[in-house]
Amino acid sequence: MKPVNIPREKGENRGVKTFSLPIQSSGGHTAVLECYVLDMSERIRWKDRPAVILCPGGAYRFTNDRESEPLACAFLAEGYHVFSLRYSTEKGIYPAALEQLARTVRLIRQNAGEWHVRKDAIVIAGFSAGGHLAAEYACKWDRPALSAVAEAEREELRPNALVLGYPVITAGAAAHEESIHNLLGAQDTPKMRRSVSLETQVSGCVPPVFLWHTATDEMVNAENSLLFASALAREKIPYELHIYGTGVHGVSLGTRATVGEEKHVSHGCAGWFAQAARFLERVLHE
What is the pLDDT of residues 47-102, one digit of tens each? Predict the structure, then answer.
């Protein structure tokens, strides 16, 4: 069968540009930033669009495919440019991933003109251990050490919203020990544990947060999300929290697109993405 050419006017043959870029930490560790940049038709009015940076989970041991491309496709369909950060996960190299995320935010703002990104609409979405990375960045983006590493002005590093799915938050009693120990390695001391217990790090610099978990999460206890939500409430940070009754850990979208077994399809929590999209619509466009 011969391919059919669809007639288009000049400038109409557009879609999504995909490419990858290296992102380094100060210690020389290299992450890979997978970029999905919307290249829209000239007939579509809105040129500058929000962007979301995805931080997949994986217990700070790897970055999970389920929380990368499937979520990228979902956000692209909502009109977001998407950047999936495959951050470095060698054991005990903290704060390499945090530095890589800071440099990613700066890179996107520096290229906002070319990529048609709204500079005031950069979202970070993290899941499981990637949720810890995203939440830590949201708590610490304004610290001089990160500005120095990223070679950026403070405001260049500001996140405008945060989406957290079944995140690792605490290094305390409800900790996901594998994630925390992989993160810190030989730096695993009481002082460092307090620094990465993010319920203790929330301040007024944290952007609005959409937060979700399942009550039956067998790996990362829902107490992690509850602790973070409590800290957000204390600091009067706008947030929305959803605890769904059922669902295993790591369900991503909760659909057949992202689960390995039929029994893990999570109809109860699969609505989180639509709820998050509505939350972001309010936060980014009000």
Answer: 899 999 999 999 999 999 999 999 999 999 999 999 999 999 999 999 999 999 99
CA dist., res. 224 & res. 205, Å (int): 20
Nearest to 56 by CA among 21, 92, 84: 84
Query: What distance in Å separates the CA atoms of residue 178 and residue 265, rounded to the nearest whole number?
Result: 25
Name the residue with tokens 């950069």. Answer: 122
Residue 255's nearest CA partner among 243, 246, 267, 247 is 267
The domains located in the chain, with CATH, are 15-285 (3.40.50.1820)
Cα 256 from Cα 13, distance rounded (Å):
31
Rounded to 10 degrees, the C-alpha dihedral 81/86/87/89 comes to: 160
pTM: 0.93
Length of the chain: 286
Gap between the Cα atoms of 65 and 200, Å rounded: 30
Alpha helices of the chain — where are they, by DSSP H?
A: 69-77, 96-110, 112-115, 129-140, 144-150, 177-184, 190-195, 223-234, 272-285
Query: What's the longest Cα–Cα distance across the chain?
Result: 66
